[in-house]
Give the backbone structure.
Amino acid sequence: MDIIANYGTTLVLVAALFGFLMAWGIGANDVANAMGTSVGTKSLTIRQAIIIAMIFEFAGAYLAGGEVTATIRNGIIDSNAFADTPDLLVLGMIASLLAAGAWLILASYFGWPVSTTHSIIGAIVGFAVVSIGPEAVQWSKFGGIVGSWIITPAISGVIAYFMFISVQKLIFNTDDPLNNAKRYVPFYMFLTALVICLVTIKKGLTHVGLHLTDGEGILLSIAISIAVAFAGWLYIRGQQYNPQDDSKMHFANVEKVFGILMIITACAMAFAHGSNDVANAIGPLSAVASIVAAGGEIGGSSHIAWWILPLGGIGIVIGLATMGEKVMATVGTGITHLTPSRGFAAQLATAATVVIASGTGLPISTTQTLVGAVMGVGLARGIAALNLGVLRNIVVSWVITLPAGAILAIAIFYVLQTCFS
């Protein structure tokens, strides 16, 4: 308690610095792999991806991020165990931010798409075990996270597989692929818009003062999705298609139709990621700020101060702009060859899985969801379409993320204790 009383402002400033570093890592890794399929298929330039991420990450965090609060009581650790020693919780959260941020930046440097969710969870578990003991960890939830390594990629992979199979049957394996693309792509736009609308209305609109019943929410989602599909239909028919382009690249005009859809799914992916993963940076930071503000009292939830969300958003955008290219390359071109139609199937499957998981409370990694979806698209073309060497490296990086976060957090926690004692 003396540490909080004597160094409260310093602790918040240090936490803000490390929270910014964590957000930087999220931008370099998680947002980069979320945008990787769009950039890899050349549907978006890196600059366009940054702009989309900037807008929709903020929108997802604000509208669908759980009313912009981060609950610490019901997280991976039992905060009641720290009731008598809140200074340990504050130092541990600060150590976790630095540990997870450092691991994410290192992984991004090597082009490994790892999980920001699991990075911060591994870090929090590490400091909790050495500061209080194993009883401070809610191991049942931790087990669910390990199980999600298999469940999450499997769900998104299955959805992406059948999504791309439907594209093949309805469009590519027909006598007139271009006209069928014009006919069916607006329907896929409808599905994409519906995913975004449902998660927004389900999780976020009460925060901005709009209260709807489930039936009203579904009807509004359908109406907005129909409007998006109609606008897409008009846009597709207004485009010029040159038959000679197909002689240079097979199905070039069909992929051009899917190009606009990739932009919509990129927005959906950024929105879904913002609603799910931005809390990895701002959650621990808001916990530190609220505990210090309360003089060491640990509440059930920590309300995010006005300056924390912009700090996280700025860090994410800078991370994507400065270090995102390697992870984009791994996801967009390293696992399997992607075209706009294949990238669409992967991104829509990922966004849909994130929505499903958010609604059921499944601990989810956006990274693992997207990699699973890209694998599903590759498998739809046969196992030979996958780069198994890249996949092996990705899986290894997933496995070592939890212990890496824990070990780094333990070391940093002891250093912080020495500095502030």
Q: What stands out?
A: The first helix runs from residue 2 to 40. The two ends are 11 Å apart (CA to CA). The chain is about 75% helix and 0% strand.
